[in-house]
């Protein structure tokens, strides 16, 4: 099964590139940039990754990315991940990035874009890996700032496959970002949003109705609302589910308790993703393997899950044919 899952062509639709920063690279970049880290060793970093909820993770996630300063850093970050993903049989990666988290510490958007763009071209050329770019807004910061970032990104609008919405969900409902997402819609930029990770089913409805998203990142809490489940099934809305993330952020106690089998039984359009692989115990292959251990799914189930992601990917039809 490990061989089968490695060889299975996998498209990843839900990855935060800053969450792919492994402790080894964190240390290397800290040294390169003269940044002090509150850890003495790589082991100490990994030991600190014992999260009680989304916020306790976000605190370390924002701290970790403080080592990223130059375009070269962003390039190295992305290439480090693309190489690992490629070795796991990943053929397409859609990466969220968090411009506001970098702007807040004085790293300007062109720096981030230059580094990520360089890595994307290199990945295509050297690994045959296609990539997409999702500019995410931080929902725990105000909407005016998000709107400002969207306008500042004007030179890059053409390069954005979508805008997204991430960070602390509870208390930051989709309503807050109606104007920003409406602006993205008018610009012709597709929209996605995290919803129903820790937040209630109403946030999933809000993301669909108020933000016009074409997929829901996470969405696992939809099961609390049967009418919403029926709608997600009828519309075949893609859910980018992140199994190991949900365990590590205590959305569920154990993977065996995860609602994935129920989501599939309900006929929902589910995909498997890694979210923040450096923080949650593994990339795409580890997520697939963990599901195999927890649910004992057959090859056809994994083919279906991988196929769902390829059908939903932000690629042209020629590339989709290659991925199929
Ligand atoms: N949820 C919300 N925001 C995030 C996550 C997540 O899992 N990872 C990085 N930002
Ligand atoms: Zn996420």
Automatic annotation (TrEMBL):
<dbReference type="InterPro" id="IPR001365">
    <property type="entry name" value="A_deaminase_dom"/>
</dbReference>
<feature type="binding site">
    <location>
        <position position="276"/>
    </location>
    <ligand>
        <name>substrate</name>
    </ligand>
</feature>
<feature type="binding site">
    <location>
        <position position="194"/>
    </location>
    <ligand>
        <name>Zn(2+)</name>
    </ligand>
</feature>
<comment type="function">
    <text>Catalyzes the hydrolytic deamination of adenine to hypoxanthine. Plays an important role in the purine salvage pathway and in nitrogen catabolism.</text>
</comment>
<keyword id="KW-0862">Zinc</keyword>
<dbReference type="InterPro" id="IPR028892">
    <property type="entry name" value="ADE"/>
</dbReference>
<keyword id="KW-0546">Nucleotide metabolism</keyword>
<dbReference type="GO" id="GO:0008270">
    <property type="term" value="F:zinc ion binding"/>
</dbReference>
<dbReference type="GO" id="GO:0006146">
    <property type="term" value="P:adenine catabolic process"/>
</dbReference>
<feature type="active site" description="Proton donor">
    <location>
        <position position="197"/>
    </location>
</feature>
<dbReference type="GO" id="GO:0043103">
    <property type="term" value="P:hypoxanthine salvage"/>
</dbReference>
<dbReference type="GO" id="GO:0005829">
    <property type="term" value="C:cytosol"/>
</dbReference>
<dbReference type="GO" id="GO:0009117">
    <property type="term" value="P:nucleotide metabolic process"/>
</dbReference>
<dbReference type="GO" id="GO:0000034">
    <property type="term" value="F:adenine deaminase activity"/>
</dbReference>
<feature type="binding site">
    <location>
        <position position="275"/>
    </location>
    <ligand>
        <name>Zn(2+)</name>
    </ligand>
</feature>
<protein>
    <recommendedName>
        <fullName>Adenine deaminase</fullName>
        <ecNumber>3.5.4.2</ecNumber>
    </recommendedName>
</protein>
<dbReference type="InterPro" id="IPR006330">
    <property type="entry name" value="Ado/ade_deaminase"/>
</dbReference>
<dbReference type="InterPro" id="IPR032466">
    <property type="entry name" value="Metal_Hydrolase"/>
</dbReference>
<dbReference type="Pfam" id="PF00962">
    <property type="entry name" value="A_deaminase"/>
</dbReference>
<comment type="similarity">
    <text>Belongs to the metallo-dependent hydrolases superfamily. Adenosine and AMP deaminases family. Adenine deaminase type 2 subfamily.</text>
</comment>
<keyword id="KW-0479">Metal-binding</keyword>
<feature type="site" description="Important for catalytic activity">
    <location>
        <position position="218"/>
    </location>
</feature>
<feature type="domain" description="Adenosine deaminase">
    <location>
        <begin position="9"/>
        <end position="324"/>
    </location>
</feature>
<feature type="binding site">
    <location>
        <position position="14"/>
    </location>
    <ligand>
        <name>Zn(2+)</name>
    </ligand>
</feature>
<keyword id="KW-0378">Hydrolase</keyword>
<feature type="binding site">
    <location>
        <position position="16"/>
    </location>
    <ligand>
        <name>Zn(2+)</name>
    </ligand>
</feature>
């Amino acid at each position: 099964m490990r061989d089968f899952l490695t060889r299975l062509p996998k498209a990843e639709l839900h990855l935060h590139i800053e969450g792919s920063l492994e402790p080894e690279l964190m240390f290397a970049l800290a040294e390169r940039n003269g940044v002090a880290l509150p850890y003495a060793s790589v082991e100490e970093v990994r030991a600190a990754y014992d999260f009680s909820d989304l916020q306790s993770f976000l605190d370390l996630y924002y701290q970790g990315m403080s080592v990223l300063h130059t375009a070269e850093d962003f390039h190295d970050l992305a290439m480090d991940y693309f190489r690992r993903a490629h070795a796991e049989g990943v053929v397409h990666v859609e990466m969220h990035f968090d411009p506001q988290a970098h702007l807040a510490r004085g790293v300007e958007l062109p720096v981030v874009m230059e580094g990520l763009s360089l890595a994307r071209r290199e990945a295509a050329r050297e690994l045959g890996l296609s990539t997409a770019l999702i500019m995410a807004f931080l929902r725990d910061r105000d909407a005016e700032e998000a709107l400002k970032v969207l306008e500042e990104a004007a030179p890059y609008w053409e390069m954005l496959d979508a805008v997204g919405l991430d960070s602390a969900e509870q208390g930051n409902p989709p309503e807050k970002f109606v104007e920003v997402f409406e602006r993205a819609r008018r610009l012709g930029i597709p929209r996605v949003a995290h919803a129903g990770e820790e937040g209630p089913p109403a946030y999933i409805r809000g993301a669909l109705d108020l933000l016009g998203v074409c997929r829901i990142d996470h969405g696992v809490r939809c099961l609390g609302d049967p009418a919403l489940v029926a709608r997600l099934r009828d519309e075949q809305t893609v859910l980018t589910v992140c199994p190991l993330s949900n365990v590590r952020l205590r959305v569920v106690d154990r993977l065996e308790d995860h609602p994935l089998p129920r989501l599939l039984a309900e006929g929902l359009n589910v995909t498997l993703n890694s979210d923040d692989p450096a923080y949650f115990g593994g990339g795409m292959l580890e997520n697939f393997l963990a599901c195999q251990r927890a649910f004992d799914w057959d090859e056809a189930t994994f083919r279906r899950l991988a196929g769902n992601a390829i059908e939903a990917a932000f690629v042209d039809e020629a590339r989709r044919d290659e991925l199929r």
